[in-house]
Design brief:
This protein is mainly alpha-helical. The protein has a single domain, classed as S15/NS1, RNA-binding (Helix Hairpins, Orthogonal Bundle). 75% of the residues lie in helices and 0% in strands. It contains four helices and no strands. The protein has helices at residues 5-15, 25-45, 50-73, 75-85. α2 packs antiparallel against α3 and α2 (25-45) runs parallel beside α4. The two termini are 26 Å apart.
């Protein structure tokens, strides 16, 4: 279920503003999106895993709050992140 270390490193490199940037909003949105996609695949096999479903809902709401923050403070960056991640907005 967890995203591999290599995949996380590539996402951080791709969305980071500078070298070593792991906490920016864009990076956090990208990591949460990858976690959400992995959990969605997990639920295709394990429909009754309610503990993980709660974790998924928490991740979705965190990503939604980050996206709202980004849209409010930098709408151009928001549009770019949405397009790069392939999210519906």
């Amino acid at each position: 279920m967890a995203v591999s270390k290599e995949k996380k490193e590539t996402l951080v490199r791709e969305f980071a503003k500078s070298q070593g940037d792991t906490g920016s909003v864009e990076v956090q949105i990208a990591l949460l999106t990858e976690d959400i996609r992995a959990l969605t695949e997990h639920f295709k096999v394990n429909q009754k895993d309610f503990s993980s479903k709660r974790g998924l809902l928490i991740k979705v709401s965190r990503r939604r709050r980050f996206l709202q923050y980004l849209e409010k403070h930098d709408s151009a960056k928001y549009q770019e992140v949405i397009k790069r991640l392939g999210l519906k907005k």
